[in-house]
Specification:
The complex is a heterodimer of chains A (about 240) and B (about 220). Chain A is α+β, with helices and mostly antiparallel strands. Chain A has two domains: about 40 residues, no CATH class; about 140 residues, Alpha-Beta Complex (Sulfite Oxidase, Chain A, domain 2). Chain B is mainly α and about 220 residues long. In chain B, about 70% of the residues lie in helices and about 0% in strands. The C terminus of chain B is likely disordered. Classes of the chains: A alpha+beta (about 240), B mainly alpha (about 220). Chain A: InterPro entries: OxRdtase_Mopterin-bd_dom, OxRdtase_Mopterin-bd_sf, TAT_signal.
Chain lengths: ~240, ~220
């Protein structure tokens, strides 16, 4: 008989060691992640080819949509409706919004899933300005946002909605907001996690109470302050 | 070569079964093939949904984020189940033992493979490469499961651990994608080799194979 019978039951349990080794490496990776992450980001910054954008955590935006597809809207077809508990319901075209005074903010964007894009400029009309123009009634307590993707919604308390750093944004990264990023008009709520900054904004409805939005019905916090909600401790963006 | 004409009427002569069919034995038991098929289906769904969550072009084309997340979470969670269920099969347990144990011939096999040496490479039911793949992917799936659960149930661990888990999950996902693609590629290559080999050895009485050697 062959002295090294290939399927002899004895032999070194290499397979078991590899499985245990992988578990050990995984745990070590979790522990060493902050260090490794900084290394990857430093590498990505020096990369002229842009190849590192395709790798995990390349420091860029990631595209999230909750529906199958979103019909594009342009200056001709876009409308923003302001209604609910207001004295003067109104509808804005893109041109109307452009004639309003524009505010530019440069803050970090922090996603609740962990990615952060530093120093991203947003420019648009302060939400408080549109609310004042519509004449908010005394019994109003909150604002609900709806989107022309047909599914997404968001909400803020009236107090949050009137902050200076909440915009109806027409520009992002100093360009018109692209369709992929929720253009032509999206909400921008600077101090909160980015899911509050609803894309493809089409409706602003003043209500008597906060109604949880799309992700909030799926477990996210309604008051989504960066670093003080969703069980996260990220550095605040504002 | 002269051909003999066949009889126009039924005869008593029986066509012998091709030897191929008679000696061919199944390499794996039904339980093992079921476990492998179920694992493969879950793995492909898990990878496909991951790609739709992660690759911007696919994410844009597919959308439906809540549904894709659910598919990814559940296929990932169920991934180890077929193998665990298969442990009830004696044949599967025996094969796991074969995959686990490395003998001197496995070291020889790996050395020969890495140096691309020609010549005989002794192996048992599984070669050393298959053994390494099995162990690596088993470990990787467990790490993906652990880090995935930390990301899914955000109350389980503090933020630092969750950020670390996300980092490991992202990078290991890339590695798993590449390794599984390699596994499928090698299986397909093996499959076409086997088919070609069988066709050479057992030409199934096709007249063309006789005619090929004619001057």
């Amino acid at each position: 008989m062959n002295p090294t019978r290939p399927d002899a039951p004895q032999g070194t349990p290499v397979g078991r060691r590899i499985v245990l080794g992988m578990l050990g490496l995984g745990a070590a990776g979790v522990a060493a992640a902050p260090l490794l992450q900084r290394g990857v980001e430093a590498l990505a910054r020096q990369d002229p080819t842009g190849l590192t954008d395709a790798l995990p955590a390349g420091g860029a935006f990631r595209y999230y949509s909750v529906t199958a597809s979103v019909p594009p809207k342009n200056a001709r077809t876009y409308r923003l409706r302001v209604d609910g508990l207001v004295d003067r319901p109104s509808t804005y075209t893109l041109a109307d919004l452009r004639t309003e005074p524009q505010t530019r903010l440069v803050r970090d964007v922090q996603c609740v899933t962990g990615w952060r894009v530093p120093e991203t400029p947003f420019e648009g009309v302060r939400l408080s300005r549109l609310l004042d123009a519509a004449g908010v009634r005394p019994e109003a307590r909150a604002v609900r946002f709806t989107c022309f993707d047909g599914a997404y919604s968001e909400s803020l308390t009236l107090e949050q909605a009137r902050r200076d750093d909440v915009l109806v944004a027409l520009r992002m990264q100093d360009e018109p907001v692209s369709h992929e990023h929720g253009g032509p008009v999206r909400l921008y709520v600077a101090p909160m996690y980015f899911y509050k900054s609803a894309k493809w904004l089409s409706g602003i409805t003043v209500t008597d109470a906060v109604r949880p939005g799309y992700w909030e019905e799926r477990g996210y916090d309604v008051d989504a302050w960066v670093g003080r909600s969703n069980g996260r401790e990220d550095a605040p963006t504002v | 070569m002269t051909s003999t004409p066949g009889s126009a009427v039924p005869t008593a002569a029986k066509m012998p079964r091709p030897s191929e069919q008679a000696v061919r034995t199944r390499r794996f038991s039904p339980a093992e093939r079921w476990a492998h098929g179920a694992t493969a289906a879950l793995m492909l769904l898990c990878i496909a949904s991951a790609a739709c969550l992660y690759v911007p072009v696919l994410a844009q084309a597919v959308g439906r984020r809540a549904l894709v997340v659910t598919v990814h979470e559940w296929t990932g969670l169920l991934l180890p189940v077929p193998l665990l269920a298969g442990l009830a099969s004696r044949a599967l347990r025996a094969d796991l033992r074969r995959l686990d144990r490395f003998g001197p011939h496995d070291r020889h096999w790996l050395r020969a493979e890495l140096r691309r040496e020609r010549g005989p490479r002794p192996q048992g039911k599984f070669n050393a490469g298959q053994k390494l793949y099995a162990a690596w992917i088993a470990g990787a799936v467990l790490v993906m499961l652990g880090t995935g659960l930390l990301m899914w149930f955000t109350g389980l661990a503090p933020l630092a651990v969750r950020t670390g888990a996300t980092f490991v999950h992202d990078w290991l996902a890339l590695a798993v994608g590449i390794v599984v693609a390699g596994h499928i590629w090698m299986a397909l290559r093996m499959w076409t080799h086997r088919k070609a080999l069988r066709a050479l050895r057992h030409p199934d009485g096709e007249p063309a194979s006789g005619g090929m050697n004619r001057p």
